[in-house]
Write a sequence for this structure.
């Protein structure tokens, strides 16, 4: 059992509270991603799990042990850093065996583990090179290899792909997913890139301002964001948000007129309506009038940036066959997907589609 | 490449050559004089190149002082002190660079302030302490107070501050103790600084005169070569034997010179390799 449990974890630097009452349970074998904007405390949280940062209050357990006061090596974890953090004066082999030698492991066992990991990561020809002689992608593999040979119960990844170019990032992301499939070990992964989070995670933890905003599977977060922050953060391009006023007739908006009330209780007053770009459609006639300000081609699809009649901006995503040009006047309609509604405090209003 | 006109280029070269001659001249004069006979060394106008390369001054040196013993003493003082300075500077420099603790900056400022204290001011108090410990007249007494120095700690702090934190954290996750982090991970990353400090400390403590003179209190068996050279000067009362003194001085200069040539190549190499690391 190597689940990781965080119970009321807090972190303060002097009087600054950077993490507040984090409660979290990561199951054995789960791939858990911490995602959030920079400065949200996600890396600090990871470093606290690693034992590199002291826990101000709360309990952290790995498996059935409370590990608050244990050193990193006693926690049975391995970590992959954004900067790779390879020892520059050691060869690839030297990097991989450093930790094993420190734990006084038998030489033959060390060699066997390195051979196994090198084969898995296809870095066998690189074993006698130094980090300076490797490309970025190779260095990251070696860093992962150094983590694998320690046979940890929990893998920690701190933005491991941020220093790679786009193509390599996708490839390495797939390899990490395959690695998780193969090893079945608990993995905790920090990123600011919501695409990485969506594609890799069994479970995503969205953090902002030192607090957990929502925990769930990628699709749960996409389909039912718990608040405005998650709604805006998960999904690319971002969800369109419009102000509205809920009343007995429905939801009154400036651009789209009065929208029908969804089923379920709807408190009256100011609400925010969230519509994903793929749920906004362009028509030549009818709909809310808008002017096209920018068209971005993604290949098979286009992103159209719109200025609505009341000056608000919106983005619609659609097929490329009806491609407007900037300056065109178009109509905008809302598709059949359910709307996301948020109350005055930014919390999700649970509704069923009308 | 910066373009320099042929004229200013030759001016620069000329200036460098002139500087090289000025700094090499005393050294060359010392070596040449050590091969002269006593008469040649006193002629006016001076004899530049000795008529015959007379080695007798070299053998006479050992009749006046214990050359081997003195060189050995110097080597012990310089190398043990240098090793001590490297160890303490690495450890303290690491703490100042990478630990955050209450009073760190104040402590660092106080330490830097000691660099501005003239050594002569601390000579007597330091001597009293060493002597109360019963160490006057011994090499241990010469070495002990110099095992740590502010400049070394300052230099190491500056270089270690540039070592990425991730590298240190990676070693901690790998199970390295703090000492292991310093010596197995941080030290190899600051090799150029270590080489420079080692060279500086070794040459300084090889050549140091006043402190061993104070501590050793005429215990000539324990004299380093620099103090023994002083005895060559006063030998023969009044009539200084120039070839004798110059032969002794040449022998005294050789070990640090060899070390310099060796270390210089070593740290230029490592600076190049550090520069090309991606």
């Amino acid at each position: 059992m190597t689940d990781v449990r965080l119970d009321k974890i807090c972190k303060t630097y002097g009087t600054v509270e950077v993490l507040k009452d984090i409660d979290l349970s990561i199951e054995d074998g789960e791939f858990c991603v911490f995602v959030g904007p920079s400065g949200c405390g996600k890396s600090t949280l990871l470093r606290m799990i690693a034992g590199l940062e002291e826990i101000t209050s709360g309990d952290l357990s790995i498996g059935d042990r409370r590990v608050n006061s244990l050193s990193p090596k006693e926690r049975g974890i391995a970590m992959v850093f954004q900067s790779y953090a390879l020892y520059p004066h050691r060869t690839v082999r030297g990097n991989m065996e450093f930790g094993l030698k420190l734990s006084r492991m038998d030489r033959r066992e060390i060699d066997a583990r390195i051979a196994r990991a090198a084969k898995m990561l296809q870095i066998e020809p690189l074993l006698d090179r130094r980090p300076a002689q490797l490309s970025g992608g190779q260095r990251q593999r070696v860093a992962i290899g150094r983590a694998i040979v320690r046979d940890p119960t929990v893998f920690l990844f701190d933005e491991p792909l941020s220093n790679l170019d786009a193509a390599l990032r996708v490839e390495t992301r797939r390899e990490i997913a395959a690695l998780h499939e193969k090893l079945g070990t608990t993995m905790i992964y920090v990123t600011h890139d919501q695409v990485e989070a969506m594609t890799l995670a069994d479970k995503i933890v969205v953090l902002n301002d030192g607090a957990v905003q929502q925990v769930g599977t990628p699709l749960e977060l996409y389909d039912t964001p718990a608040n405005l922050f998650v709604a805006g953060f998960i999904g690319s391009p971002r969800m369109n948000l419009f102000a509205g006023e809920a009343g007995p007739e429905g939801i009154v908006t400036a651009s789209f007129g009065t929208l029908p009330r969804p089923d379920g209780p709807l408190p009256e007053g100011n609400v925010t309506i969230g519509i994903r770009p793929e749920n906004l459609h362009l028509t030549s006639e009818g709909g809310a009038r808008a002017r096209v300000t920018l068209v971005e081609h993604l290949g098979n699809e286009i992103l159209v940036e719109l200025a609505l009649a009341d000056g608000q901006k919106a983005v619609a995503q659609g097929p490329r066959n009806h491609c407007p040009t900037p300056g065109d006047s178009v109509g905008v309609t809302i598709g059949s997907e359910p709307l996301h509604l948020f109350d005055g405090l930014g919390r999700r209003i649970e509704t069923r589609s009308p | 490449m910066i373009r320099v006109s042929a004229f200013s280029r030759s001016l620069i070269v000329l200036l460098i050559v002139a500087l090289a001659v000025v700094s090499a001249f005393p050294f060359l004069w010392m070596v040449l004089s050590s091969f002269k006979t006593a008469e040649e060394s006193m002629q006016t106008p001076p004899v530049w190149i000795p008529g015959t390369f007379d080695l007798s001054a070299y053998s006479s040196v050992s009749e006046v002082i214990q050359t081997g013993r003195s060189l050995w003493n110097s080597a012990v003082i310089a190398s043990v002190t240098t090793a001590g300075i490297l160890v303490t500077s690495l450890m303290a420099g690491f703490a100042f660079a990478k630990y955050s603790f209450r009073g760190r900056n104040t402590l660092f400022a106080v330490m830097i302030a000691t660099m501005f204290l003239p050594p002569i001011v601390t000579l007597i108090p330091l001597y009293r302490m060493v002597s109360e410990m019963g160490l006057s007249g011994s090499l241990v007494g010469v070495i002990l107070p110099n095992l740590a120095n502010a400049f070394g700690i300052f230099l190491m702090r500056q270089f270690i501050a540039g070592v990425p934190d991730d590298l240190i954290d990676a070693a901690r996750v790998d199970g390295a103790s703090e000492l292991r982090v310093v010596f197995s991970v941080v030290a190899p990353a600051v090799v150029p600084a270590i080489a420079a400090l080692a060279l500086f400390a070794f040459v300084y403590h090889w050549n140091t005169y006043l402190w061993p003179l104070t501590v050793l209190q005429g215990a000539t068996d324990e004299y380093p070569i620099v103090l023994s050279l002083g005895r060559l000067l006063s030998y023969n009362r009044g009539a200084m034997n120039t070839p004798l003194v110059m032969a002794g001085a040449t022998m005294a200069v050789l070990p640090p010179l060899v070390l310099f040539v060796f270390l210089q190549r070593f740290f230029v190499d490592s600076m190049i390799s550090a520069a090309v690391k991606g």
Summary: Residues 274-278 of chain B have pLDDT under 50 and may be disordered. Chain B touches chain A through 21 residues (CB under 8 Å).
